[in-house]
Amino acid sequence: MTISAIQRTSVGRNGVGAFIFQCKRLDFHYCDWAGSSKGMNLFLQHQLPQFAASHPSIEIHVSPRPSKHPVIRGHFINGAQHAICVRNLAKEQVLKKAEILRDMSGEKATRVKGGRVVGSLNEGIRGVWDPYHGAKAPSFAG
Questions:
Q1: 23-30 and 59-64 strand pairing
Q2: Distance between CA atoms of 127 and 72, rounded to whole angstroms?
Q3: Cα diameter, the chain
Q4: Which residues contact 108 (CB under 8 A, 6 or more apart)?
């Protein structure tokens, strides 16, 4: 009996089972002259090629912005944009900020409403507390 390798494990169908980044484009704006862009310039020279190669679904734009602080701007599938200023950051920190934008959904951060952190359909085992439980009713007769 011969053993043969599996030819194809699965075929993607309409994106089911595939992860799609919500970030569709990253814009890197920098200044050649200013000292606050030093980390951004090092990132663009050394780490951006690997970052772009490992994320082919994200479009990368690099453009100079003279006399301005460096900024990374993310454009998302839902049409939202989010910018992070990376002035005076090291190249590793710039990479972290780019990864933050890559992983974002583009939605605004919203506060969770309600007093209870955990919601449940079931009541607690002990029930709802009442001041008249477990003790005799106070007597006001003197």
A1: parallel
A2: 52
A3: 98
A4: 80
Q: Say which amino acid occupies 58.
A: I
Closest CA to 79 of 12, 126, 27, 24: 24
pTM exceeds 0.70, yes or no = no
Spatial distance between the Cα atoms of 122 and 140, rounded to a whole number of angstroms: 37
Q: How far apart are CA 96 and CA 103, in angstroms?
A: 11
pLDDT digits 0-9 by tens, 39-88: 999 999 999 999 999 999 999 999 999 999 999 999 999 999 999 999 99
CA angle 81, 86, 87 (to 5 degrees): 135
| Short-list 52, 31, 54, CA closest to 41 | 31
pLDDT surpasses 70 at 102: yes
Q: DSSP class of residue 45?
A: H
